[in-house]
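JOB MANIFEST
job_type = single_chain_structure
chain_count = 1
residues = 502
[input]
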Amino acid sequence: MDSGGEIRIHQTRRLPDFLQSVNLKYVKLGYHYLISNLLTLCFIPLIIVTSIEASQMNLDDLRHLWLHLQYNLVSIIICSAFLVFGLTVYIMTRPRHVYLVDYSCFLAPDHLKAPFDRFMEHSRLTGDFDESSLEFQRKILERSGLGEETYVPEAMHYIPPRPSMAAAREEAEQVMFGALDNLFANTNVNPKNIGILVVNCSLFNPTPSLSAMIVNKYKLRGNIRSFNLGGMGCSAGVIAVDLAKDLLQVHRNTYAVVVSTENITQNWYFGNKKSMLIPNCLFRVGGSAVLLSNKSGDKNRAKYKLVHVVRTHRGADDKAFRCVYQEQDDAGKTGVSLSKDLMAIAGEALKANITTLGPLVLPISEQLLFFATLVVKKLFNKKVKPYIPDFKLAFDHFCIHAGGRAVIDELEKNLQLLPVHVEASRMTLHRFGNTSSSSIWYELAYVEAKRRMRKGNRVWQIAFGSGFKCNSAVWEALRNVKPSHNGPWEDCIDKYPVKLVA
């Protein structure tokens, strides 16, 4: 469980105003990425000039060129050898495209739904919470942006609850296998053809690992490269995609599966510390499975192409490191504590991330305005407000981690987005709650279910995580994308968007 909790009690917990606080040093990171690809960009005008010159040549020019080449055969052979060598090196070392063939989000059975009244009644009947804590949870629920149809695991429906290792394993299996079964059915991919497996779950890391549970269930091949990421919070889904992307650059002609989930059963907090009660009110059952490929033949059936991944880590700062912290309270009960500084820290991480991402995705006009106002502010007039780029010019769809209502509100304001741009995030929070690292996939599924995804559209997935991290993934639609069979919104998309109470 992780960042993005609904913390609206104090003004100090709001995101900082980017207009007042964008730092020039973060921009340098983005331009570093840009300059690292400068050699490739330089070839473009060279090719254009060569093409223009070639188009202007007549038959006499071609005859003279042929005679010239005949008298310089040795030079031609040497140049050709260097050209062939250079092209071979380029082809062998160029980044391979990573395609998102399809993905699946877990939809829990109806008997796991937790309406507010049932949630509060069960909390009261456990006997673990005093009246102040119960009232606090009630207020958080009312302000959270969650609806009445979110899910909690089986163990939490009993009175008293039955959190155990066996129950936690059952939750993990239900979520992961449910998402994977649907993914394999929709893609017709044989599990034995999977070469890379990356699983992320922050708080539940049993032995054998979650990735080993998947290998055992689907009898994956013995030489599979499997990884299990723990403790990395709600942004771990993007980290897992980044790891899979890097592995797909090395291992040719293969599939990678990324499974993102969180486990609630053994991580419910049964104490009375307010900052540790918030996750109980926000986090709900959910998970996703994503199929990635580096096979050129998959381009025709894939939904998206991965364009960029930008990761920002603020863990060197002590406050950022401890703002989402698993610990025991004074009574020895374990939970995840959310600092009152969480929103401010998230804002700093977001600033670093978007100013690194900006030069990679924004039109040159936006980049020049942004950079010019920063230089003027730094050199001449410190009262000049930096120009905040219009990311709506770079992206068609936004999948902001559904961590809590306050997070979505503040990103909508600071990035100057329209209500339609945050609709997927708000509706995902309402229907499924905070499903941690998988929430960005429920949001993408919402956009598809609304039939809004068109060929060439760009999607920005952005998530926050403990540590403290802010990570972004950018995808480009390869076709007009339709929702996959048995999607999470299939039975309810006509009801959305719903009107939320202010």
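[summary]
Residues 3-13, 19-26 have pLDDT under 50 and may be disordered.
The two ends are 26 Å apart (CA to CA).
exit_status = 0
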